[in-house]
Amino acid sequence: MNALIKALSYIPMPVLYALAACLRVLAFDVVGYRRKVIDKNLRIMFPDASDAERNRIRREFQRNFSEAAIETLKGFSMSEEELRDRVTIENPEVLAPFIEKQQSMLIVTLHQTNIEWMVGRICLALPCPVAGVYKPLHNERMDSIIKAGRARFGKPIPIKNVAREVLRQRKSFRAMLLAADQSPISREKRFWHPFFSQRAPFYYGPQTIAEAGQSVVIFAHPRRLSRGRYSIRWEILAEPPHTSGGTEILERFIEACERSAREQPESWWISNKKWKKPKPWEAEASRPS
To answer: Which of 114, 184, 273, 283 could bridge to 68 as Cys pair (CB 3.0-4.6 Å)?
Structure first.
């Protein structure tokens, strides 16, 4: 399967985008992939927007999502030079002081634009080992493919091994990368916080990893510039020392996620089931926003 994916990655980009157009029609127009979820999310995000505006965002998201999915194929053969060219860093000077001091970093982001290209480009932007935290997929074959793609420029780390990796690398110059905007499952400990117009659950990962590693926390804002062209903007969220037991870093992360998604909603993964009903024992979810 990996050999087939690698072979498909050499298909010229214009042909891939033609395939993306077919994928969009099949997935969203014929199958109706998560149409109700997308419409619900847009009503929560933009309750005062007109139906025409929400429809525009939905259509643009469907096109962008389909193109990003197909672009992921190209990542299996794309050179470092091409990836650097297609995904630019807007403000590289922000990280310069931490790189000079060899300060460990926690890079946090959200599922926006082409997440696979973002992961690869972030790894290339740092002169130190980058461990990309990921949650293994239930489908072992697809999990193997995604892991192989991310291993080209970084080191994928299953979420269950994060604590061990942080302790092992605590005193070394390294970075950890985490996209933590998706909803945890109900049996996991969840942090409920206002997100757009109502509370939503988040992973505690950005807070606990920053505290354990005493890392500087940096948010990566992804942006879609045009077809196959993206940018990343760094934002410092917190610098050590971090005291344990707080939620300030997590709250700053959530606020940054909302700003990023609000600035370019059509490139955020609005098909995700972000807003869920809390369980009876999750009292914090019922607090007024």
So the answer is: 114
> Is residue 235 a contact partner of residue 218, using CB atoms and an 8 Å limit?
yes
Q: What is the pLDDT of residues 18-74, one digit of tens each?
A: 999 999 999 999 999 999 999 999 999 999 999 999 999 999 999 999 999 999 999
Global pTM reads 0.94
Six token digits for residue 97 = 């002081």
Q: Are 253 and 108 in contact (CB under 8 A)?
A: yes
Residues 6+ apart with CB under 8 A from 213: 104, 106, 166, 169, 170, 176
Rounded CA separation 173/102 (Å): 5
3-class state of residue 264 by DSSP: coil
The C-alpha angle with vertex 210 and arms to 252 and 128, in degrees rounded to 5, equals: 115
Task: Please report which helix (H) or strand (E) contains residue 161, including its range.
Answer: none
Q: Which of 55, 38, 40 is nearest to 277 (CA)?
A: 40
Dihedral, CA atoms, 129, 269, 29, 9, nearest 10 degrees?
-10
- Concatenating the DSSP letter of every residue in 35-54 gives HHHHHHHHHHH-TTS-HHHH
